[in-house]
Write a structure and sequence with these properties.
Layout (H helix, E strand, L loop, with lengths): L3 E3 H8 L3 H10 L4 E4 L2 E5 H10 L17 H15 L2 E5 L14 H7 L2 H14 L10 E2 L5 E9 L2 E11 L6 H15 L3 H8 L7 H42 L1
Antiparallel strand pairs: 1-3, 2-3, 4-7, 5-6, 6-7
């Protein structure tokens, strides 16, 4: 007859914590029987695990955008955008907005008001996610405005992107600007006169201001990382308590 082991004995043999033992029971890596109020585990299965590996490690659950406290991030993003005099948005790694756009200029509001224009903006934000996030380089979006971004990472994994921009690095050439606006108007079905009027108010920022924006952007992103990391740890602990409660009830 297969002997039974207590949870504590399994912990000691496999070198894992109590929560991991119960999680292994829940996902089928171990089977057990409840004797009174305590779980007991089959020694044969534990020995088979030991035969396969000397140390069984619990994999960290992947961190998702759920760890982001968006209700806290939105006002911080709003303040940053207003002080820096740029537009800002937090997206997922694929460019999908997670927050409302902060301090968006009228030109971008017109673009984003079009379904195809909004998708073009999302595609531009998605391309920013491919950068390493360590460079202060500003790049043009599909509409010709400058943008940069800073990664928001938790446990070494990028879960979001803080994007900032909506300005020109230098005054655009009038002829090129006219052609660009005509194309945007046709592709996204936006009134050309409205688009042209809004484009006149797009700010032009010098290199000094760009550098300043980048420094602020990194600081805000780092703050988001710290808050999100604490939230992720709290969520993990709550899940561990839920697992233990489930099997001890």
């Amino acid at each position: 007859m297969d002997s039974l082991l207590s949870a504590k004995q399994v912990q000691e043999l496999l070198h894992v914590d109590r929560t991991t033992v119960y999680r292994m029971l829940k996902d089928g890596r171990l089977t057990g029987v409840k004797v009174g109020q305590q779980w007991r585990f089959y020694a044969r299965e534990v020995n088979e695990l030991l035969a396969g590996t000397a140390l069984v490690r619990e994999k960290d659950a992947p961190v998702s955008a759920d760890a982001l406290p968006l209700h806290c991030m939105q006002p911080m993003q709003d303040v940053f955008a207003e002080i820096a005099e740029v537009g800002a948005v937090t997206t997922d790694p694929h460019g999908q907005p997670l927050t409302r756009l902060s301090n968006s200029c009228d030109f971008c509001k017109l673009i984003l008001g079009s379904e195809t224009g909004r998708q073009a903006c999302i595609n531009s934000w998605s391309k920013l996610a491919q950068h390493d996030g360590k460079s202060s380089e500003f790049v043009p979006c599909h509409a010709g405005l400058q943008y940069t971004s800073a990664r928001i990472e938790v446990q070494g994994e990028m879960i979001a992107l803080l994007v900032s921009g909506q300005f020109y690095a230098q005054s655009p050439d009038p002829q090129e600007q006219t052609k660009r606006l005509q194309k945007l108007s046709e592709v996204h079905h936006i009134d050309l006169n409205l688009l042209s009027q809004a484009a006149e108010n797009i700010p032009v920022l010098d290199e000094r201001k760009e550098s300043q924006i980048w420094v602020w952007l990194k600081k805000v992103a780092h703050t988001f990382e710290q808050i999100s990391s604490e939230r992720a740890n709290l969520m993990s602990r709550l899940k561990q308590i839920a697992v233990m409660s489930d099997f001890e009830s």
